Amino acid sequence: DQQVKQNSPSLSVQEGRISILNCDYTNSMFDYFLWYKKYPAEGPTFLISISSIKDKNEDGRFTVFLNKSAKHLSLHIVPSQPGDSAVYFCAAVNYGGSQGNLIFGKGTKLSVKP
Amino acid sequence: NAGVTQTPKFQVLKTGQSMTLQCAQDMNHNSMYWYRQDPGMGLRLIYYSASEGTTDKGEVPNGYNVSRLNKREFSLRLESAAPSQTSVYFCASSVAGGEKLFFGSGTQLSVL
């Protein structure tokens, strides 16, 4: 049973527009959420995170929104650039659980077209 | 600063062969992890080591063994490779209990 779901395998956006990547989770015990970005033939790299006590975190062009009641988070990229084309993984962790319990979604492949 | 280094980058095995994937980090992190990534499956945790001298199973540990050789190094061993173990393997590290993982560039393994 998937605890972290990214229901859109792919997303295509025009350069300069907003990209919105979505993530849903089922485990209400998750208290920290992260987004990782992955280019082909490279390992994932940390992008941005949010604690469950917040509903928004911003870092430059990247903003993550958390809606705890809906168990939903989203990553907004504004404006989108061709270099943002990558696979984005949503991940969640329960600090009260055991070590090593970072759960990843299946990823969304973002393509930003010039 | 190399970060997390994995070797080899590519490997082809025959069913039943054994091999060890090596991982080393130079960030003085306490925790290390092995993940596998399969198409449409995201990243799944195989084993992790919270600190030197400890290892624990993750979501998909069957068919694998690990060794935390020292604080820097964490190896993953396939004793008898199976086609189902064809995947991309990523090693990662973090500060103790940290959720921000630093990943290596991966090992593409094919088992024929």
Note down, in words, how this protein is organized:
The complex is a heterodimer of chains A (114) and B (112). Chain A is mainly β. Chain A has no helices and eleven strands. In chain A, strands 2, 4, 5, 9, 10 and 11 form a six-stranded mixed β-sheet that branches. The radius of gyration of chain A is 14 Å and the shape is globular. The model of chain A has no long low-confidence stretch (mean pLDDT 93). In chain B, the strands form two sheets. In chain B, strands 2, 4, 5, 6, 9, 10 and 11 form a seven-stranded mixed β-sheet that branches. A four-stranded antiparallel β-sheet of chain B has the order 1-3-8-7, with no helix packed on it. With 112 residues, chain B is mostly beta strands. In chain B, 0% of the residues lie in helices and 52% in strands. Classes of the chains: A mainly beta (114), B mainly beta (112). Chains A and B meet through β4, β5 and β9 of A and β5 and β10 of B.
The pair of chains with the biggest contact is:
A-B, 24 and 24 residues
User: What structural class should be given to the helix and strand makeup of chain A?
Assistant: mainly beta
Oligomer: heterodimer
Q: Nearest-angstrom radius of gyration of chain A?
A: 14 Å
Stretches of chain B where pLDDT falls below 50 for ≥5 residues? none
The biggest beta sheet of chain A reads:
6 strands, mixed
Number of helices of chain A: 0
From the spread of the alpha carbons, the general shape of chain A counts as: globular
Q: Compute the gyration radius of chain B: what is it?
A: 13 Å
Strand portion of chain B: over 45%
The number of E-state strands of chain B comes to: 11
The main pleated sheet of chain B reads as: 7 strands, mixed
Secondary-structure element pattern of chain A, one letter each: EEEEEEEEEEE
